[in-house]
Amino acid sequence: MPKQIYIFLCFLLLTSPGSAFGCGTCTLAYVDYVLPPVHVWLLFPIFWFVAASIISSQDPLQPRLLVRGWLSVVLALSMLTLEIALGVAPFLSFFLLLGPLQLSIQLLRKKTRQRWDQNHIFHYSIVSSIGMTALCLLIAYSGWIHATRTDSDYVISWGLSGPGISIIHALKQEPIDLKNIRKLVQEANHLTAAKLAGTLATHGQHQIDFPILLQAREQAVFNQDVFDQALTQLIGIELETGSSTQEWQAAYDQKFQED
């Protein structure tokens, strides 16, 4: 299970004290690997926490894990800023869920409901019902993404992050996953494609993979020499640096028509 090992090591790196002010993109990428889609998971606790805090701000018996009025907005946005901009911790904003969840649990307790004003109970019930329904739907949606999303889909979104690079390294290990590698060379950015070009040339078939590598070479802004080397390895033809796509195609046609 090399992919899981790479991802776990990446998680340890992101959550270590030395990386407290590390890569925000890597933090988001790791959370998205565990709980996709990451941006919805980061925003959902904020909206639920703020809504519950504002509704309960006039209640003298406000749940202890909620805060008063606009202070909730300041707290929520501060946590989101730390998480996205500084990468302090991958699950920081999830602590905001404790307040609304505490409120939902208290609504189920008869003694607590007897102490609260009926008007407050009505508004609490609305925000709690909407929040719990949204939470269940979000969990189901995350499960569907996990069941349908391939490694290549993840890398296309997060290829240059720590977890994305970890998956790229795992794809290079045996057994080689040519399906995902081909998709990445075709659809990912040219930097990601360049990391996998050599692996595709080593394990691929020229009938299928020559057009893929040639197209990736044509789209590459940098690293065209990497694709030149991959093409040479794949078909056994070496052309001068800077050769055009047409020259590569002509050399390929000439060789394999003769064969």
Brief sketch in words of this structure:
The chain is mostly helical and 259 residues long. The chain has 14 helices and no strands.
**What fraction strand?**
under 5%
Oligomer: single chain
Shape field: elongated
Structural class based on helices, strands and sheet pairing: mainly alpha
Please give the radius of gyration in angstroms.
26 Å
List keywords for this structure.
259 residues; mainly alpha; 2 domains; 14 helices; elongated
Describe this structure in words.
The chain has two domains: 37-148, no CATH class; 177-258. It has helices at 2-15, 24-34, 38-56, 71-86, 98-107, 110-115, 118-148, 151-158, 162-171, 178-187, 190-203, 206-219, 224-235, 245-258. It is 73% helix and 0% strand. The protein is an all-alpha fold and 259 residues long. The protein has 14 helices and no strands. Helix 11 runs parallel beside helix 13 (224-235).
Question: Helix and strand layout, with pairings?
Answer:
Elements: H1 2-15, H2 24-34, H3 38-56, H4 71-86, H5 98-107, H6 110-115, H7 118-148, H8 151-158, H9 162-171, H10 178-187, H11 190-203, H12 206-219, H13 224-235, H14 245-258
